[in-house]
């Protein structure tokens, strides 16, 4: 029997979203003071992400037993990321250039407040340097990566550590077992924290509506609306087609991830659901080694929503400031965005900073025009985070299909609702895979005694 709507996490998050909008609209000052609820929830999740990613990746590599396969999964993931990111960047340019959301604004750049950009310009150099980005992947110390919570650094350590443990063979088995047990503990902790999601969403939405209101959307409503439409087209058109070619339905996947999608929408952060998403994909039937490699890497290399934002905002600023763009300028924006979009996840205030870094390579567009999008950045951040998360989940499924690392039967049963997945239930032992669990259940049912009618 299904739980009542308000008792499910999905129902509670929906109610929190509605209450947040109401509180923000009626009591804006009080709503703005609720920001710590959203910030606190995200901090609790981020607190556990680094050690959890480490455990999942290490155990995934060790359980695979084939280091060449691990490398193959990583290469295929990166190839997929580059192809799909290029589609996202091109779609942003195409729709912005075609629908022209900034045409007619006639903004005089001399009237814009340059001080609004002061907090971002100091970080532009860091974002534009490819060498600095690559060097940042290497942590100062083993512990430093976990202290900072830098996912790429933790991923590097986990790959090296997992490879070393796997190379030890039998001597490394106790370490693998210990890492697996530790991962189960972290997932249990996540189960406790996730119960606070409705409070986090309530605080984040109430703050957004209370501080910014809908008035900030009036002047730049066309840009925000176009961005949401572009993300919608990309998710259903591009990602939906890719997932269909892999043998799955995107609407069923979105329904399966509906709780996480609502939390991301409310908090405008895909970090807030990273552990839950990894666990759900594993329970769906994707091998843990693939999930552990693709999801964390995708958080830095597969930012589809962010890529759309970069090119769309760049062309919008050019149009709003009456800056003509040639075909060469558009291709330059596309090429530069392919580089600057990587690693944006680890840059504070990443959206504006990376956009500034991108525009610095296109002198024709006045960088001061970034001030125009500051007031609506939060609203666009919701769609960015949603699209990023959906893109990484689909990437994991596609790479899983590509590498035959997904139990198709279980995946379809889960997505069709034939198997109910409980994220907070005790996890299966490491030795029991998804397919093995199904087989065990089937065997048990077949072995059960069949009731026969009593003889008269």
Summarize the structure in words.
With 456 residues, the protein is an all-alpha fold. The protein has a domain at 67-150 and 216-422 and 429-441: Sodium:dicarboxylate symporter (Proton glutamate symport protein). Helix content is 72%, strand content 0%. Residues 426-456 have low confidence and may be disordered.
Quick gist of this model?
This protein has a domain at 67-150 and 216-422 and 429-441: Proton glutamate symport protein, CATH 1.10.3860. 72% of the residues lie in helices and 0% in strands.
Q: In angstroms, what is the radius of gyration?
A: 23 Å
Q: How many E-type strands?
A: 0
Tally of individual helices: 23
* CATH top level assignment of the domain at 67-150 and 216-422 and 429-441: Mainly Alpha
Distance between the termini: 36 Å
Q: What is the helix fraction of residues, given as a range? A: over 70%
Instruction: Give the overall shape, derived from the CA principal axes.
Output: globular
Low confidence ranges? 426-456
Report the biggest beta sheet as strand number plus sense, adding barrel if it closes.
none
What is the CATH superfamily of the domain at 67-150 and 216-422 and 429-441?
Sodium:dicarboxylate symporter
Which class best fits the helix and strand makeup?
mainly alpha
CATH topology of the domain at 67-150 and 216-422 and 429-441: Proton glutamate symport protein
